[in-house]
Amino acid sequence: MRILHLLDHGLPLQSGYTFRTRAILKSQQRRGWEVAAVTGPRNGPRDLAEETVDGIDFYRTDPVPETISPFGELREIRAFARRIDQVVAQFKPDVLHAHSPVLDALAGLRVARRRKLPIVYEIRAFWEDAAVGNGTGTEGSLRYRATRALETWAVKRVDAVAVICDGLRHDLIGRGIDPGKLTVSPNGVDMSVFGEPLPYDHALAETLGVQGAEVIGFIGSFYDYEGLDDLIAAMPLLVDDRPSAQLVLVGGGPMEAALRAQAAASPVAQHIHFIGRVPHTEVDRYYSIVDVLAYPRKRMRLTDLVTPLKPLEAMAQRRLVAASDVGGHRELIRHNDTGTLFPPDDPAGMARALAALLADRDGWEGRRARGRAFVEAERNWALNVDRYAPVYQKLTDGMASHKPWPSPPALNM
């Protein structure tokens, strides 16, 4: 089986998107499939048109000049489709596997129709909801509604759809999509990367000034929807109850400057530590010094529909997990069993939940073990990758009766 993955961006860039992609492609390689990936114009300029990163062959698409919407998006689709077509001629895949956003599916559909190839579209989040979560869009706006309609159009025309969680699956069924067309391929952990936690890194803890403290941590991107402002706001209340509590924030993103200013003005500023971005190969050192990984996502459509990856990595590292009680977290965390759920958008409620968890040391080891067991049994990429096999096989077996699609509609955003 030869699969060509169509990506918004990929390695060596680092993001939750690229880490999931890497896990999928490496797991497919270990299964014996031949895989390659084409990254779109938004990956940015690269020195090489083709390169191998971490044993994966990547083909790059040149960026296109920026212009107003929707003309910029149309240029991107055309440029990406041309590059995909070139790679198809060279790699000769059996299946095209496009990953969100929907622009990738639209580019892939053009090539799939021309080359008579089956295409799978994998949705990690709806583009319109991601824009709202990132602060670049408004729910219910003309652009939001147009993007949503375009997503639905694409889903109806690809051969199969994979989604990362039940929230997205139920939403698509509500749009009239045949449930039989949908497969859930949940977020998972590559246990070859996160399988064995490091021992407590005393030197790192001492350098950060958290040796012997009760450490709350966040490792990820600093977007508004992550709710880190609520976590910082909870710290004075938490320190009142647990004086040794320290907060370690690893990562960066659009909200970093505002969060640093908020932390500097906090009465417990000395308890809040910003680390910045660290190489992915160094992340497990920071996991080793954290007692509780906190994920205080705000309640909105994006966080209710989409499951994050980071809590799974934390469970694989045998860390305690505490998260806001939103739909995406409820698919991953069983309250007071594998983790703790606290009210979203509520710093006081968050502080109470974290204080209670820190005080319950007798229950820590059991929670750690149950969280780790959940990831090994249900969110392990060595097992998750098998979900693609029947989808690919059905599509390749059925290509003889494949019918062409109509032309994509014009973008109207």
Automatic annotation (TrEMBL):
Domain Glycosyl transferase family: 212-361
Pfam families recorded: Glyco_trans_4_4, Glycos_transf_1
SUPFAM superfamilies, per database record: UDP-Glycosyltransferase/glycogen phosphorylase
Domain Glycosyltransferase subfamily 4-like N-terminal positions: 16-188
CDD domains assigned: GT4_WbuB-like (cd03794)
Cited InterPro entries: Glyco_trans_1, Glyco_trans_4-like_N, Glycosyltransferase_grp1, PEP-CTERM/XrtA_GlycosylTrfase
Gene3D superfamilies cross-referenced by the UniProt entry: Glycogen Phosphorylase B
Protein name: Glycosyltransferase, exosortase A system-associated
Organism: Sphingomonas psychrolutea
